[in-house]
Amino acid sequence: MDAVRRLGNTSIEVYPIGLGAMPLSLNGRPDKEQAHSVIEAFIQSGGNYIDTANVYCADASEIGHNERLITNILSKLNPEKEIIIATKGGVKRDRDNWIADGTPKFLRQSCEQSLNDLKTDSIFLYQLHAPDPDVPLTDSVGEILKLKDEGKIQHIGLSNVDVEQIELALSITAILSVQNRCNLFNKKSFANGVVKFCKNNEIAFIAHSPVGGHFEHAQHTDNVSLKQVADKYQTTTYQIMIAWLLRKSSAIFPILGATKVSSINDSLKAIKIDLQKEDMQLLKRI
Ligand SMILES: NC(=O)c1ccc[n+]([C@@H]2O[C@H](COP(=O)([O-])OP(=O)(O)OC[C@H]3O[C@@H](n4cnc5c(N)ncnc54)[C@H](OP(=O)(O)O)[C@@H]3O)[C@@H](O)[C@H]2O)c1
């Protein structure tokens, strides 16, 4: 497996697995010291890309929690290499509900707040968190394009989209990345052609929930075929799930969530696993 992946059509090289920082800010999150250790372990292993969103927090009273947490930890760690931060806007939160709001006014307000919380003048990648069924996609993406023209963001990404929506967005601007749920137990983005479309159009496909999701991951570890492959490589089912994604397409860039250093240290070893064809076939049937 290559030691780095190129991000979309840019020349930017990233460690093949990114850190999805969401679990560091949701209910049940670890304390600040543990969050610090998780990010530190990720960077020490070679990681250089962190995914966040303004709505990664416990409830609406602390919007921006995850962005502020990352900014604070990185300022203390002061890493030698550049750490790429990608964030998202276009979703509203209360305690339990995540509701799309793709109105230009809300997106602009969210982006301004993210700039503030990330303590930056320009966000590397700003992703529309999810299309809003009540707002034309071109209106949402159009506003993000205006933010890009103003220099407030450098690249535009989409999340939770299908091919038709990507094509619509591409009709008005360049798209660096598409972030969808994608793992061995959720192959929708393969079935509906999104991964292939991204590969063909040099768009990075960012696989969120790569080991099954923050709340559901543990239930997948007992799968017989998955365990069989993990036993063969004398490794964990987590590493196999990530190795499978990395092998499926060079466009795929998994972002892993973790609240424990042990999870990071284990899962990042996936880049060393080169799954054989027969094992890919076995996993395909899951
Ligand atoms: N765009 C969207 O709509 C969207 C939606 C969901 C997520 N995301 C992004 O994608 C990222 C990843 O998704 P996710 O966090 O939901 O799911 P995930 O990465 O599939 O699963 C994360 C969980 O897996 C556990 N884990 C990982 N490696 C492990 C290992 N080797 N051994 C044991 N446990 C391990 C971690 O447990 P511990 O907590 O015990 O370490 C962690 O909580 C998020 O953080 C977020 O940035 C985006």
Brief characterization of the structure:
With about 290 residues, this protein is α/β, with parallel strands linked by helices. The protein has helices at about 30-45, 65-75, 105-115, 135-150, 165-170, 190, 195-200, 225-230, 235-250, 260-265, 275-285; strands at about 5, 15, 20, 50, 85-90, 90-95, 100, 125-130, 155-160, 175-180, 205-210, 250-255.
CATH superfamily: NADP-dependent oxidoreductase domain
| Binned strand content | 15-25%
Q: How many distinct domains?
A: 1
Please report the total strand number as a whole number: 12
CATH uppermost class: Alpha Beta
CATH architecture annotation: Alpha-Beta Barrel
Tell me roughly what share of residues is in helical segments. Answer: 25-40%
Order of helices and strands: EEEHEHEEEHEHEHEHHEHHEHH
Report the span from N to C terminus.
23 Å
Could you explain the architecture of this structure?
It is a single chain. By secondary structure, the protein is α/β, with parallel strands linked by helices. The chain has one domain (5-284): NADP-dependent oxidoreductase domain (TIM Barrel), CATH 3.20.20. The chain has eleven helices and twelve strands. Strand 4, helix 2 and strand 5 (84-89) form a beta-alpha-beta unit. It starts with a strand and ends with a helix. The model has no long low-confidence stretch (mean pLDDT 97). NADP nicotinamide-adenine-dinucleotide phosphate binds at residues 20-23, 51, 159-160, 179, 208-214, 217, 236, 238, 255-260, 263, 266-267. NADP nicotinamide-adenine-dinucleotide phosphate is lined by residues 20-23, 51, 159-160, 179, 208-214, 217, 236, 238, 255-260, 263, 266-267.
